[in-house]
Amino acid sequence: MDAKILIESFAEFARSKNVDRPTMIRILEDVFRAMIRKKFETDENFDVTINADKGDLEIFRIREIVDDNSEDIWDFDKISLSDARKIEPDFEIGEEVYEKIELEEFGRRAVQMARQTLIQRIKDLEKDILYNKYEEQVGEIVSAEVYQILGREILLMDGEGNELILPKGEQIPKDRFRKGDSVKAIVHRVDMMNGNPKIILSRTSPVFLERLFENEVPEVYDGLITIVKIVREPGERAKVAVESYDDRIDPVGACVGMKGSRIHAVVRELQNENIDVINYTDNLELYVTRALSPAKVSSITVNKESKRISVFLKPDQVSLAIGKGGFNIKLASKLVEYEIDVFRELNEYEEEDVDLVEFGDEIESWIIEELKKTGLDTAKSVLTLSKEDLLRRTELEEETIDEIFRILRQEFEQ
After folding, report:
1. Which of 373, 390, 370 is nearest to 382 (CA)?
2. What residue ranges do the domains of the chain occupy?
3. TM spans, by residue (predicted)?
């Protein structure tokens, strides 16, 4: 393989990858200078000129002419007068000799090594380009096609044939993809594994939901509406706190759209994830009330030292506040950054009810706390539920629930 073929093949690849000309020339020069150092031990007195467009290569060795008896005759940048006159008979001492070195002089093996080095540099350059491309897109939405489904991840291909990875943990639980499907996700991060860029995507990140809102709601994209915070339980429920600095714009209404047109597009992309859009406020109590929507809160007590909030609701609102699987109260706590405890507000007909704390001698405190987390703070509130309801709403074992029922029923029988 001669220099022309080497240069032209590299230049063609470089142009296909949008590599700038200076970088392309630098890599080529590095490869040829490595060959020179291998043969002559140094490249300091060599001039390398490359024309990538034409595939031309010129290598000149530059040496100063010294007397045959000079002490400097063995220096790398010196040549004896007698040797110089073999090249050109009218050379004189003190002049410089520009000796052209042909690629063939390095030998076939050296040229083959140069070719391998160039191939490796091409591969490294391709990896760097891929890494830099996606590093700049971290947090942005990309679309890619599914080409292989594995147990712990899905492999996707972008428009340029690059492999992207969507791990199981970054997929919405309800996601079901087949080969050839187009998938939207954000670039979550880019890792370097053994010199190879590994592009990780995510559909569970709150940033993915934020980018979807930017795509569907022009006011968010333009900055007229600010998304203050997003909390998600992917595929189940999300809460989005928004605000606008323009009093003429209703941030919640703009995000939802006419008859839900805007938010429906987001919900469909997230496998019917239930999205609550709430108006952000600095008023903590009002913020908590909005965060627990659709439940209607009767009263709130805030303990800023312990970062806990006690919320009191009518009995028929407790289950709404907690939500299916406890997601509503869990996400509300994350949104306001306080631990929320839900309590039933007793009415005049429930005065004979007994607070669960009163059973501290018979029921362990951690069990009482587990019940309170689901809004069950009195004996009757527990007894109105079935065993199956308690198994679903708490992490208690069946035997423990049976014992709780026995203790509570005994109280009222007495």
Report:
1. 390
2. 3-133, 139-204, 205-280
3. none
Tell me what pLDDT residue 396 has: 86
The two three-digit tokens of residue 301, written as one number:
């007590």
What's the Cα-to-Cα distance from 404 to each of 318, 372, 380, 387, 390, rounded to whole Å? 21, 14, 12, 10, 11
Amino acid letter for position 271: Q
Distance CA 321, CA 333 (A): 11
Q: Which of 237, 194, 24 is nearest to 121 (CA)?
A: 24
Query: Looking at the domain that runs over 139-204, which CATH code has it been given?
Result: 2.40.50.140
Residues 6+ apart with CB under 8 A from 62: 45, 46, 47, 77, 96, 97, 98, 99
**Distance (Å, whole) CA 128 – CA 143:** 21
d(CA 371, CA 338): 19
Residue 15 has pLDDT above 80, yes or no: no
**Each residue of 40-81: pLDDT tens digit?**
889 988 998 888 777 778 889 899 999 988 888 888 888 899
Residue the block writes with tokens 């209607």: 296
For residues 225 and 249, the answer to whether their CB atoms sit within 8 Å is yes
User: Which CATH number is associated with domain 205-280?
Assistant: 3.30.300.20
Q: Work out the number of other CB atoms within 10 angstroms of the CB of residue 303.
A: 12
pLDDT at position 348 is 47
Q: Quick one: pLDDT at residue 144?
A: 94
User: What pLDDT sits at residue 190?
Assistant: 94
Global confidence as pTM: 0.68
Question: What is the pLDDT of the chain when averaged over all its residues?
Answer: 87
